[in-house]
Design a protein that fits this description.
Strands 1, 2, 3, 8, 9 and 10 form a 6-stranded antiparallel β-sheet that branches. A 4-stranded antiparallel β-sheet has the order 4-5-6-7, with no helix packed on it. The longest helix is centred in the middle third of the chain and has 8 residues, at about 135-145. The termini are far apart. About 10% of the residues lie in helices and about 40% in strands. It has 3 helices and 18 strands. With about 260 residues, it is mainly β.
Length: about 260
């Protein structure tokens, strides 16, 4: 039997990602410099919660997870930092996490280039980074309607999992409780699979510390790994915002805050 402070399950697998380079920077200097590997930040986030504005067609890269991008690239929101007045994010490259990989600390307005495709960082939140494609073709590719709304499994679901298409996002949103209602995720290592969306898990609950870990996977990719969330924290799942409203040994409760 586990004590109230026990952790349940294991965290999701490390996200496989693709090459990311900072626009205008090089290994010899200029642009934003690579940083060291991120560490778990158990202390409460100092805020502000968000810095910058998000465009309607922005790419939402969720905390701890990644997003496959047009052209075969991808980007991961690896770590965050806030000092009470400003906020930055660490974006990381690579097919899988490993020592020595390059990563960059960015702020709103920073530019990154992924597999030759340029993006501007428009917003950084504790729970997401929003990127805006520079090229109209990339915007169109991200917003393209999928051939089917049925999930097939694995990379075949890229068009459903990594998209800004409004029809897809609306369909996924309908699988969650309505605004103001609560979604309960069991903290026993089980998986909640949405019909048109990611699978959701609670990786651990630490009632003594008042923290929990949440994960989401889609198309075989961990798209979010929220570590050390507390009651009152905001998380995003498949384009929908929730506030952590309770955590016990049995479940983590999320109250929907967006439409």
């Amino acid at each position: 039997m586990f004590s109230p402070a026990s952790r349940y399950g294991v965290a999701g697998a490390t996200l496989a990602l693709w090459a990311l380079t900072a626009c205008g920077s090089s290994s010899g200097g200029g642009g934003e410099d690579p940083t060291t590997a991120p560490t778990t930040q158990a202390a409460k986030d100092k805020g502000p919660q968000c810095v910058g504005e998000t465009p309607a067609d922005g790419v939402h890269v969720l905390r701890g997870g990644g997003f496959r991008l047009p052209g075969g690239g991808g980007v991961q929101y690896a770590a965050a930092s806030a000092d009470g007045t400003s906020r930055t994010a660490t974006l990381r490259d690579g097919a899988a996490y490993g020592s020595g990989q390059r990563q960059w600390t960015v702020k709103p307005g920073s530019r990154v280039t992924v597999s030759g495709h340029a993006y501007t960082v428009r917003q950084i939140c504790s729970y997401r980074v929003v990127l805006e494609p520079k090229d109209a073709k990339d915007k169109a590719a991200l917003a393209a309607a999928p051939e089917s709304m049925e999930f097939a499994g694995g990379a075949a679901d890229n068009a459903l999992c990594f998209t800004t298409n409004r029809d897809v996002l609306t369909a996924v949103s309908k699988n969650f409780p309505a605004k103001g209602q609560t979604l309960s995720l069991l903290s026993n290592g089980g998986v909640r699979q949405l019909p048109t969306g990611p699978s959701l898990t609670v990786s651990y609950v630490d009632t003594a510390a008042g923290t929990a870990g949440l994960g989401a996977n889609c198309a075989g990719v961990p798209v979010a790994i929220y570590k050390d969330v507390r009651v009152g924290d905001t998380v995003e799942l498949a384009g929908v915002l929730f506030q952590v409203s309770g955590l016990t040994e049995e479940a983590v409760r999320l109250t929907r805050t967006s439409e």
